[in-house]
Amino acid sequence: MTQEMDLNQRFEDYIAADQKIEAKDWMPDAYRKTLIRQISQHAHSEIIGMQPEGNWITRAPSLKRKSILLAKVQDEAGHGLYLYSAAETLGITRDEMLDALHTGKAKYSSIFNYPTLTWADMGAVGWLVDGAAIMNQVPLCKCSYGPYARAMVRVCKEESFHQRQGFQVMLNLSNGTAEQKAMAQDALNRWWWPSLMMFGPNDASSKHSEQSMRWKIKRFSNDELRQRFVDMTVPQAELLGLSVPDPALKWNEETGHYDFGPIDWSEFEQVISGNGPCNRERIAHRVNAHNEGAWVREAAAAHAAKVAARADQQTHAA
Ligand code: BYC
How far is ligand 1, taken at its centre, from the CA of residue 200, in Å? Predict the structure, then answer.
């Protein structure tokens, strides 16, 4: 008991001093559980997030755009893998995480349950979705759990390239023909509100925020980050000559921020409980890809076993 109290005190001292908690350090069970939940859901979001864009690789309008999009989707696979590895350091296996995803027990970001209908959606996803992702993820580079914080550094660097390429697609379309500009506006109309929902429920309804902020997993609340995103993005929309689909959006001199209209939380609830426009399609596609990849996992395991056996033989021969 006293030993546990000492360990808990040490953990609290580390958090207070902004020192990283590492995989082998003692940590409260609830801290471990929260991290497993958040990191695995984050990993799932990256992996499911490959689908809406993967859908456009074969239809990108030029070779240059195709290779950029291909690289971006590959980056997302990489992010998923670092994040699964970070979660594994907490004692959960990759199979357990994937099983939770495939059976609908684990969540992933609401945003990836919306369809990508036109090429302009590749611009809007990069600009808005990656823009929101960076806003949320840069503070995670300072998260109290070392393996998660370190994984986020590289993820954020790549996300910022993704965001800029999305903005450039929007810029080209906005400066193009009237039809192209209309396509960009339509994409902004469809992606704006779902992007604001990415930050999660309002602070008053965010059940995990208070504890996660005390543990310095989250550094800013959902509403703070959402407001920063709106403040950063509205001037970018103006630069594109596009209008944000919110009649209540207005600069507030007093607060120094944009006021914006109410979010439709019933839509968010529907999407995160499995009833968004593409939830079923996303999971079915993922499960199918996992099953079709079984032979690759088997071959990799057989190769690893051969390499290990060879190394073992050499040790014995020496
Ligand atoms: N979608 O108490 P709250 C990417 C859930 S990947 C679905 O505020 P928390 C990218 C939440 O999980 C983007 N569910 O929770 C990839 C909780 O349910 P559970 C993903 C959501 O954890 C490819 C409940 O609602 N980013 O950027 O304190 C291409 C109550 O919420 C959502 C991350 O995962 C949502 N939007 O705060 C491009 C970042 N929001 O778990 C881009 C890491 C909330 O109790 N995660 N929920 O069943 C976080 O920062 C936090 O987990 C969140 C939520 C801010 C998302």
Answer: 6
Count of H-run helices and E-run strands, the chain: 14, 2
Distance between CA atoms of 128 and 255, rounded to whole angstroms? Answer: 24
The string of pLDDT tens digits covering residues 52-103 is 999 999 999 999 999 999 999 999 999 999 999 999 999 999 999 999 999 9
What are the start-end ranges of the H helices in 175-249?
178-197, 209-214, 222-240
**Residue 221 Cβ contacting ligand 1 at under 6 Å:** no
For ligand 1, the distance from its centroid to the CA atom of residue 279, given in whole angstroms, is 16
Reading the block at residue 133, the tokens are: 């992702």
Place of tokens 């000559």: 241
Q: CA-CA distances (angstroms) from residue 290 to 15, 48, 98? A: 38, 12, 9
Model pTM score: 0.95
Instruction: Report the DSSP beta bridge partners of residue 257.
Output: 252
Residue with tokens 């109309």: 189
Question: How far is C-alpha 206 from the chain's CA centre?
Answer: 18
Tokens found for residue 91:
């004692």
204/223 Cα distance (integer angstroms): 9
Q: What percent of the chain has pLDDT over 90?
A: 97
